[in-house]
Amino acid sequence: MKVYFSVLLLLLISSVVHAAEINFQNILQQERAWAGLESKSLKVGDIEWRYSEGGSRTKPTLLLLHGLSGTRDNWNRVARYLTPYYHVIIPDLPAHGETKTPDNFDLSIPNLTEKLRRFADAAQFDPNMHIAGHSMGGAIAMLYAAQYPIEVKSLLLVDAAGVYKSANTPYLKSPEQLRNIVVEKPGDFDRLMKIAMQAPPFIPQELKVAQEKLMITQSKNTHKMVSTLVEMSKLYTPESFAMATRMIDAPVMIVWGKDDQVINVEVAQELHGLFKKSDVPLILNGVGHMPILEAEQLVVQPYLKFLNTIK
Predict the structure, then answer these.
(1) Residue 6: its pLDDT value, please?
(2) Which of 201, 207, 214, 227 has its CA 20 to 30 A from that of 19?
(3) End-to-end Cα spacing for the chain
(4) Residue span of the signal peptide, if any (predicted)?
């Protein structure tokens, strides 16, 4: 009887967890639809891309890139205000979200950038794009603009990763510290939110558990990504990073959370001084590392005005 009860209890727990996962995916799909996005897939080489697409292809194209351990859904709140006016593309970057890669995939920023270019070409997106990147996605956006200058109309950089002189957080001084914020066991998600956001939005417990479980399953890839970033930090200096940044001709908008604990706000002014065409950085008080989730309207309204100035 005890064995039967234990099996029944395990089946019940399993069904509840499965139902929570289904509900989580349903809510993500609803959020994408609310933002005017559809979920799509495309195989390019050895990468099975999953991405969100919305807005008319007859309108200018925006490519939005998420950060380390993030997903395309980090941009949904911002995308809601963009899809009525632009053709919006938001991929899950390789080894993130639902995009699948081989086990031995090269996760370096240069390779991610090159594979992103192949993805855009295979999907036949307008090659003359506006690109926005958050955190690690910002580093990819900058390299993309430096390598493919005639294909980038503008850049939006939100708390963008890079190699900076004014770095003073543990995660910039020693990228190895990023391992301490990888979600790999229950409880880590709450700890990450306290570091990444100054004022985390309310998340129902059921969805929080499902999100944490998803990130735990991806923790191996996240650790691989951190290892790649650690190696790159040894190869690049603030001077070599600045040299690449100065090559970018596209207009740039910089947004930063004043209370960012991951990439300190002083970096925004340093970046501003490197670009040929950069607006004065927009600094958001009371906001941490995730302005696109913490204060999306404070990001998107100035961004729309910025885009309207691009010819």
Answers:
(1) 40
(2) 201
(3) 74
(4) 1-19
pLDDT in tens, 230-287: 887 887 888 989 998 999 999 999 999 999 999 999 999 999 999 999 999 999 999 9
133-149 average pLDDT score: 95
Task: Look at the block and give the residue holding tokens 């010819």.
Answer: 311
Compute CA 5 distance to the chain's CA centroid, rounded to the nearest angstrom.
Answer: 44
Domain ranges of the chain: 2-308
Residues 20 and 206 sit within 8 Å (Cβ to Cβ): yes
* Angle at CA of residue 262, ends 257 and 268, nearest 5°: 45
- According to CATH, the topology of domain 2-308 is Rossmann fold (3.40.50)
Q: Confirm if 102 and 36 have CB atoms less than 8 A apart.
A: no
Structure tokens that stand for 311 in this block: 């010819």
Residue 5 scores a pLDDT above 50? no
Tokens of 296: 């999306």
Residue 21 burial (CB < 10 Å; 0-12/13-18/19+)?
middle
Structure tokens at 218: 């991806």
